[in-house]
Specification:
The complex is a heterodimer of chains A (109) and B (627). Chain A is mainly alpha-helical and 109 residues long. Chain A is 46% helix and 0% strand. Chain B has 28 helices and 10 strands. Chain B is elongated. The chains are: A mainly alpha (109), B mainly alpha (627). The interface between A and B is medium-sized, with 25 and 36 residues. The complex binds iron/sulfur cluster (5 copies). The site of one iron/sulfur cluster has 13 residues of chain B, from helix 27.
Chain lengths: 109, 627
C-alpha cells in the first residue's frame, strides 16, 4: 500500500501484508492462551516495568496480529519477569510464559 | 568330606586354617571378577570425566577442601551418616531408614570384616591381584578348611559378627521386598517405576544375600560358621546328605554379584559409589554450572531413585503430574532425553521440597535452573530505561532502614500498609525505596534461567542500595529476601525479612503487642523456610499475639501455595489444585485463620481458602498495643 502522506496524525493503518503468518501460528501452537486475551489491559496497568518505559503485553499481542513485530518486541523488552501480570490477568493466561515464547519465536530471525 | 580334604593344598597356619585349593582359585569366581573389574574401570572413567568438566577453579576448591582438616572431618562424618546409616531417612521414616541402613551398613560391614578376617588369618592373599586380592576376601569361606580343634576366640568372634551382619542385611532385604508389594507400610504413597537395568540389579541384590547365606551354610562345617550358618549346615546335611549342592550355590552367588556390578552403572545402584564423591564436592562448596556435566553429573548419578521426592512434590496432588518429579527428571537426564528433560524443567515450582527431603541431597531444582539457562539466557532485553529510577525524595533520606517492598507486595497494598504502620508505631524512620515502583529484585529472572538479565537488574538495585547509605534492608517478600541474601553481596548491610525484624522489635521491647484470642496456623513460604531457613521468628511473634496451631506438615515439609514464580508452564488450574491441597494441610487443626509471610502465598490462598487468610504484618498490626 502506498502512503500518500496527507494524514495529520500518525497513521494507524494496519498493513496485514507485513504479518508473519508462519511465526504467528507457531506462537499459537506453543501458546494457545495467546488467543484467550481479551485486551483488557490489566497486565499493562499493573506492570512493574511500565513505570519506567511503556511495556505492555496487551499491545504487544495486538501488534503481532497486525504485523508489527519490532514494535511488539520493543513493548516487551523491558519486562523483568516479575509475574504481576500473571496474577492479575482475568483470563488466567500464563503471561510470563507467553512473553518468553514471543521472545523466543520472534527474536530468532 | 575325605575326598574334599584329599585335594587340599596343605599349608596349615597357626590358626588352623588350610587352603582347600591350590592357588586358591576356582572358576566360579570369574563372573564376580568380571563384574568388579568392569565397575572399577567404569568408575575411574566417570571420575575423570567429572573432574575434567569442572572448571579449574572448582577443581582447586575441591582439592583444598579435601585436605583441610575441618572439611575432611565433615566429609567422613557425612559419608558415614548419609551413605551408611542414612540418618536423614531415619529421622522421617524410621522403618524405611532401617531398611536402607541395614542393606548399606550391613553390607559395608560384611566387606570390611571379610577383609579384616583375611588380613588376620590369611594375609598373603591380599598381597597382589595374582594372589586373588580381588575376590579372595569375598569368597574366603569357600577356599579354606578350618580344623575344629584350632578354633580360637578371635576366630569365633568373626564368625559371629559375619553371621550377625548377614542377618542384619537379610532383614533389610526382606523389608525391601515387602516394600515392593506394599510401599505404604514403609511410609511411601508413590514409588518409582524401575527401569530394566534397575530390575536386573534389584533382583540380583535381592538374591545375593540369601545365596550367600546358602553358600556359607553349605560350607559351614568346613570353614566355620556361627549361629546362622551352622544350624543351616546341619539342616542341609540331614536333608541333602551330600556336598553336591555347594559348588553350584557358590557359582550362583558369584554370578549374581557379577551381574549386579555389570548392571550397576545403568541402574539406580550407581548411587552407592557416586554419593561419597558428591559429598566431597558439595562440602567443597561446588555449584551446578552446566546442567549435565561436572558437578551436575555427580548429582545425577548420586540419585538413588528412592522416590522420596515423589511424595514430596506439591505437584503430585494430581497423579498426572507424577512424571514431573525429580526422580524422573534425573532419569531422563541420565538418558539424554532432551525433550522430556526440558518439559520437566519448565514445569517445576522450584519450591525446593524435593531437595530438602532428598536423602542424598540432590539439588535438582538447581539443575533445572541451569537447564533453563541454556535455552533462555540468550534472549535479549533492554533495561536502559531503569536508569531513570531514583529514590523518593520526600521523607528523611538519612534513615538507617530501607524498606524494599518488591513487585509482589505492590499487588497487595495491605501488606505495605501494615509494614509501614508497624515501623511507624515502633518509631522507626525509613526510606521506602520503591514507593513509586522500583526495579524487580531479579529472582524471577534467575529462576527462569535468564541469568544475564537478572545480573543487570541486580547490579542496578545494588547500586541504589549502596548509595543510599542504609544499614538495614527490610523486605516483605521472601522471594526478594532470598535473592538479596544470596546474590547481592551487600557488604555490611543487614538484610532482614519483616518476620525477623518484627520479632527483633518485639524482643527488644521497641514494639509492644497484645495477646489476642485468634487461633492461627502459619504457612512457611518456600523461599523463606526451605530457601533461607527462617522458621522460628514468625512463630515466636505469632505465639505472642495469638494461639498458634500446627499444620499437618510444616517447616521444611510445608507445601507450596502453588503460586510460585519458579514454574514457567504450570497452568492456573493446576496451581489452584496445589493451593487447595496446601490449604487442606494447613487447616488440619481447624484454626480460625491462615497466616503467611509472602505476598504471593497470600494471593494464592485468598482465592481458595474457606477461612480468612492474613498476612503476617497484618496480624501484628492488628495487635499493636495502643498507649
Ligand atoms: S512480568 Fe513483565 S510484563 Fe508482567 S508485570 Fe512484570 S515486568 Fe510487566
Ligand atoms: S490481563 Fe490478560 S486478558 Fe487482559 S490484556 Fe493482559 S493478557 Fe490480555
Ligand atoms: S532425587 Fe533424591 S529423593 Fe528423589 S529419587 Fe533421587 S535420591 Fe531419591
Ligand atoms: S522443586 Fe518442588 S515443585 Fe519442583 S520438583 Fe521439587 S518438589 Fe516438585
Ligand atoms: S508463593 Fe509462597 S508458597 Fe508459593 S512458592 Fe512462593 S514462597 Fe512458596
Amino acid at each position: 500500500m502506498i502512503d500518500f502522506g496527507f494524514g495529520l496524525s500518525p497513521s494507524s493503518r494496519v498493513n496485514l501484508d507485513l504479518r508473519d503468518k508462519e511465526l504467528f501460528s507457531k506462537l499459537i501452537e506453543t501458546e494457545s492462551d495467546a488467543l484467550k486475551c481479551m485486551a483488557c489491559g490489566s497486565c499493562t496497568a499493573s506492570c512493574s516495568a511500565g513505570v519506567f518505559e511503556e511495556t505492555s503485553l496487551r499491545s504487544a499481542l495486538l501488534n503481532l496480529q497486525n504485523g508489527n513485530k519490532e514494535k511488539a518486541l520493543n513493548l516487551l523488552s523491558h519486562c523483568m519477569f516479575c509475574g504481576k501480570c500473571t496474577m492479575v490477568c482475568p483470563r488466567g493466561i500464563n503471561t510470563r510464559h507467553l512473553i518468553l515464547s514471543i521472545n523466543k519465536i520472534y527474536q530468532a530471525r | 568330606m575325605t575326598t574334599l580334604l584329599n585335594t587340599m593344598y596343605t599349608q596349615i597356619t597357626p590358626e588352623g586354617i588350610i587352603d582347600r585349593y591350590p592357588n586358591s582359585y576356582n572358576h566360579f569366581v570369574l563372573p564376580f571378577v568380571i563384574g568388579i573389574s568392569f565397575i572399577i574401570v567404569y568408575l575411574l572413567i566417570g571420575l575423570i570425566r567429572i573432574l575434567y568438566h569442572l572448571t579449574a577453579e572448582d577443581r582447586k576448591k575441591l582439592l583444598v577442601s579435601i585436605f583441610t582438616p575441618k572439611t575432611a572431618v565433615k566429609n567422613i562424618k557425612d559419608i558415614f551418616c548419609d551413605c551408611l546409616i542414612h540418618t536423614k531417612i531415619w529421622k522421617r521414616k524410621p522403618l524405611l531408614g532401617y531398611m536402607h541402613s541395614a542393606i548399606a551398613f550391613g553390607w559395608f560391614m560384611l566387606i570390611v570384616l571379610g577383609h579384616i578376617e583375611v588380613a588376620l588369618f590369611a594375609p598373603r592373599h591380599l598381597d597382589s591381584i595374582a594372589d586373588g586380592a580381588l575376590y579372595y576376601p569375598i569368597f574366603y569361606r569357600f577356599f579354606i578348611w578350618m580344623s575344629p580343634e584350632h578354633e580360637t576366640l578371635r576366630g569365633s568372634l568373626f564368625f559371629f559378627l559375619m553371621d550377625f551382619f548377614l542377618l542384619y542385611v537379610l532383614s533389610g532385604i526382606a523389608l525391601a521386598m515387602y516394600k515392593r508389594v506394599r510401599s505404604i507400610a514403609l511410609g511411601m504413597r508413590h514409588t518409582t517405576k524401575p527401569s530394566l537395568a534397575d530390575r536386573v540389579a534389584l533382583y540380583c541384590l535381592w538374591a545375593i544375600f540369601p545365596l550367600r547365606l546358602l553358600a556359607e551354610g553349605f560350607t559351614a562345617d568346613l570353614s566355620g560358621g556361627s549361629f546362622l550358618t551352622r544350624p543351616l549346615n546341619w539342616l542341609f546335611k540331614s536333608f541333602f546328605g551330600n556336598e553336591l549342592n555347594f559348588l553350584p550355590t557358590w557359582w550362583l552367588y558369584s554370578i549374581c554379584l557379577g551381574l549386579f556390578f555389570l548392571a550397576m552403572p545403568f541402574s539406580r545402584y550407581m548411587h552407592i559409589l557416586t554419593e561419597p564423591m558428591l559429598i566431597l564436592m558439595r562440602n567443597a562448596g561446588l555449584k551446578v554450572r552446566k546442567p549435565r556435566k561436572g558437578f551436575a553429573e555427580a548429582e545425577i548419578y548420586a540419585c538413588s531413585s528412592c522416590g522420596l521426592c515423589l511424595d514430596a512434590c506439591p505437584m503430585n496432588t494430581q497423579k498426572k503430574n507424577l512424571k514431573y518429579s525429580s526422580v524422573y527428571f534425573i532419569r531422563f537426564l541420565r538418558r539424554h532425553n532432551e525433550k522430556k528433560v526440558k518439559e520437566i524443567a519448565e514445569k517445576c515450582l522450584m519450591c525446593g521440597k524435593c531437595y530438602a527431603l532428598c536423602p542424598v541431597g540432590v539439588n535438582s531444582p538447581d539443575i533445572r535452573r541451569a537447564l533453563r539457562e541454556t535455552s533462555n539466557t540468550k534472549l535479549s532485553y533492554d533495561y536502559a530505561p531503569m536508569d531513570k529510577f531514583s529514590l523518593p525524595v520526600e521523607g528523611d533520606q538519612k534513615a538507617d532502614i530501607m524498606y524494599f517492598a518488591g513487585c509482589m507486595s505492590h499487588l497487595t497494598p495491605k501488606i505495605i500498609k501494615s509494614v509501614t504502620t508497624v515501623l511507624e508505631s515502633a518509631g522507626k524512620k525509613f526510606i521506602f525505596a520503591d514507593r513509586e515502583g522500583g526495579i524487580c529484585c531479579g529472582r524471577p529472572m534467575l529462576l527462569a534461567g535468564r541469568t544475564e538479565a537478572a545480573k543487570e537488574l541486580i547490579s542496578k538495585n545494588k547500586k541504589m542500595i549502596m548509595e543510599s547509605g542504609c544499614k538495614i534492608l527490610l523486605l516483605s517478600c521472601p522471594i526478594c529476601y532470598k535473592v538479596f541474601k544470596d546474590d547481592y553481596d551487600l557488604k555490611d548491610i543487614r538484610i532482614l525479612h519483616y518476620t525477623q525484624y518484627m520479632n527483633e522489635l518485639i524482643e527488644k521491647g521497641e514494639l509492644k503487642v497484645t495477646k489476642g484470642s485468634l487461633s492461627m496456623v502459619y504457612h512457611d513460604p518456600c523461599e523463606l523456610g526451605r530457601g533461607c531457613g527462617v522458621y522460628e521468628e514468625p512463630r515466636n511473634v505469632l505465639k505472642a499475639i495469638g494461639e498458634l496451631k500446627k499444620a499437618e506438615k510444616e517447616r521444611d515439609e510445608s507445601i507450596c501455595c502453588g503460586g510460585s514464580l519458579g514454574s514457567l508452564t504450570l497452568d492456573n488450574k493446576d496451581r489452584g489444585k496445589i493451593a487447595e491441597s496446601s490449604i487442606d494441610n494447613l487447616t488440619a487443626e481447624n484454626p480460625q485463620s491462615i497466616v503467611t509471610a509472602c505476598p504471593l502465598c497470600y494471593r494464592s490462598f485468598r482465592e481458595k481458602s474457606p477461612i480468612p487468610v492474613k498476612d503476617f504484618a497484618e496480624v501484628v498490626c492488628e495487635n499493636i498495643k495502643s498507649n
